[in-house]
Every structure is written in structure tokens, then in C-alpha cells.
Amino acid sequence: MKKSLLFLSTLLIYLVACTHSESEKEKKITASDSTKNKTADSFTTIDSQVNAIQKSIPSLPYVRSMKYERNDSTTFDVSVYLNGANPVSMYEEINAGKKGYKRRTIYFIDDKPSFVSTTEKKVDGKNYIFKETKSYLDNGKLVISLSRSATHTSELMNKTFEPENNDTTNYNEILKRMNRALAKSGEFDLLFSKIKKVGNRTYLVLSKPSKDSYHTNLLILPGTKDIMIKKIQANPEKFEGKKLDVKWEYQNRNGSEQLIYNGVNAKN
């Protein structure tokens, strides 16, 4: 009898332990699933908000930087789309010609950088690789990136986005660079270099002394009566290395986009 009672007691303890263990497993699984569901719901909400921003962009005012160049012919420019004084989207394009390009758009939700869409074209041996990346941010800090790639753009739509675990992109630093480009500060604070002729075109060139620095070429329209241009042409050495607070605009001329010199602000 004592042996039977001992056996039953042992069995009861075992069953209670198993039940407790299963309960703990269920709690862990439920908590994990809940976190995943909340994350998925959060991403779905962000996707919906980004879609709404994309639809509104054509009607929004925007500001665009000058087009900056490097000696390897890589170009870089930035645009910001505004709702009042607040950015809702910032776009940058880095174009390396035959080497490819990178186009990045950062979307702001509740005035915070929350989502980034990046498209790339880069050389891989004799082929090009096309890549799309979606990055979800928490106030500028990367949460997760999803990407897909193919050798032809037509193939991308049939690819599934997969987590990109090695993405270490610092989007706060990218935002700072974008803002410097718009403000013409830091590496984009360019000085007068020269006026140069290329064929029948004349350009005002702004740059920095550093070999690897950015520079920009502003087309001077033929027959200009701009006083500053007349002064520079008369004595270019006097203005070399000086800051010119230039105004500019983009025009489509002969089928290509041109950055046009449009005078200087009054302080010059």
C-alpha cells in the first residue's frame, strides 16, 4: 500500500511539473507570436502611410540641391518634399554612369524618418545586378531591412523580399549628408574656381582645393548681362577661392537636364 501511495504521489508530481512546463512553453510561444504580430502590424501600417505619402508627392512643393560631381564623373543631388515647413520625403540620387546608380528615398511619419526605399544598379563582373531594399526605421535607427535582387529589372517583381541581416547603414548620417547638400555646407560649401568653356558652352565652376572634393558646373546662358559674371570674366583671379552665394535652376535643354546659373544673392 505504501509503495502504491508513493507511486501515485510521484506520478502526481510529474504530471504537475509537465503541466507547468507546457504552460510555460505556451506562454513563451504566445508572447513570441504576439511580438511578431505586432511587428508585422507595425510594418503594414508604415507601408500604408508611405503609400499615402507617395500619392501626395506630385502635389507637394519641393527644394532641390545643386548637382554635385566628383572627378570620376559620379554625380549626386538631393530633393526634399515639404508639408508646410516639415519634410515628408527626401530623395537622393548617386549616378556613376556605366558603373551604376543608387536612388534612395526616406519617408517621414509624424516628422520622424520611418521608412527608406533604395534601388541600385551595380556592376557584377560582366553583368549588372539590380537591387531593391526596404528599410524600416525607429526615429532614424535601422530596425530591419528587406531586399531582393536580380540581373534584370523585369525579374525583380517576381522576387520575394528577404531579410538582409548584414545591413549596417547609418541612416541618421545619410540624412545629415542630405541636409548638408541642400544647405551647401560642409563638403558641399563650394568656392569659385573658374569659368570654363566646353565647345560653345560656358560654365561657372565651383569647387574646393581637395582633389577628391565635389564640384559643380553651372551653365551660363549665352548673351547674359549678369553683372557678377561680367566682373568675374574681367578679373577671375580676384574671385578665385571666394564664396559666391549663387542662385540656380534646372532646365531641359536639347533633351538633357542642365543646371543653369541664375545670378547671385544680394550680399555678393
How would you describe this structure to a colleague?
The protein is an alpha+beta fold. It has five helices and 14 strands. The strands form three sheets. Strands 1, 2, 3, 4, 5, 6, 7, 8 and 9 form a nine-stranded antiparallel beta sheet that branches. Strands 10-11-12 form a three-stranded antiparallel beta sheet, with no helix packed on it. A hairpin with a 2-residue loop joins strand 13 (246-253) and strand 14 (256-264). The chain starts with a helix and ends with a strand.
SSE arrangement:
Elements (H helix, E strand, L loop, with lengths): L1 H55 L5 E3 L3 E2 L5 E9 L2 E10 L4 E10 L2 E13 L2 E12 L2 E10 L2 H4 L5 E2 L7 H13 L7 E8 L2 E7 L8 E5 L6 H8 L1 H4 L6 E8 L2 E9 L4
Antiparallel strand pairs: 1-3, 2-3, 3-4, 4-5, 5-6, 6-7, 7-8, 8-9, 10-11, 11-12, 13-14
Give descriptors for this structure:
alpha+beta; 3 domains; 268 residues; disordered N terminus; 3-stranded antiparallel beta sheet
Q: Detail the poorly predicted runs.
A: 1-38
- Proportion of residues in β-strands: 35-45%
- What percent of the residues sit in helical stretches (DSSP H or I)? 25-40%
**Structural class by secondary-structure content:** alpha+beta
Task: Describe, in short, the structure shown.
The protein is an alpha+beta fold. The chain folds into 3 domains: 2-57; 60-183; 190-264, no CATH class.
